[in-house]
Each structure stands twice: as structure tokens, then as C-alpha cells.
Design goal:
Structural class: mainly alpha
Low-confidence stretches: 1-8, 125-133
Mean pLDDT: 86
Helix content: 40-55%
Number of helices: 5
Strand order of the largest sheet: 2-1-3
Largest sheet: 3 strands, antiparallel
Radius of gyration: 17 Å
Amino acid sequence: MDDLNHAPTRRDLDVLDILTEGRRLVATGWCQGAMAKDAHGRATEASSPEAVAFDPVGAIERAVLNLLEGDRSTLIQNYYKGFYALAWGLHTHSRLSAWNDDPMRRHAEVLERFDLALVRRTRPMPHAPRAAA
């Protein structure tokens, strides 16, 4: 059978794992003005082996790649799970990037955003009451 006759393997990551790994990456190295930077402060792709510092968006992308061990077949669906959990209240990549890139932003605030996203995901979500039939 050729590749067209195989259904892709679905690999869903837990959003808590994505956020935890993303937070670990930002705790190790945080940057502004690019999704990722190398050891010389130059912008690079978040997936690059040279990337050592990440903004929140780049950290989520790299976290997913790390957890999938480089397999890109389910990168997008897993990326968006992590992104939307982290970007809650900001809603878009550009707003999250602008928030991160604010010259007054501090590393601790970015880590706090990850912490808040983790707390939101671990709290039981209340269910809406059912309407009487």
C-alpha cells in the first residue's frame, strides 16, 4: 500500500503537557522580537536546533515538536490546543506577540501567563445548568 492509502496516525497531546514544556522552554530562555533566538541573539525558527530562547508562541511550537519527537504530522492541531490555552483573553498570535514584545514586559510575567494557563486547565470547568424539557 502506498502512503495515500494509510490514514495518518492521530496523536493528541495533553494540553497540560504542552503548556508545561512551553513554560520550561521559556524559563530556560526567553526572548522578545522573534519566536525564537539563537545563542547570539539572532532570530531563528522555533524548530531550529540552534534556538535557545523563545517567545510564548515559539515556545508552544517547540514544546509540541519536542513532545512529538519531531513528528510534524499532528503539529498544527496540537499547537493550537496549547496556543489557545495560553492566549486566553488575547485571542490571536499578533496580540500575544505584541503582549510579549512590550518593552515593559518582564520574564516573570511571561512565566506567570503560563502558570495561569496551567491553573485554568487543571480546574474543573463548571457545566451550564440544563434547561427543563
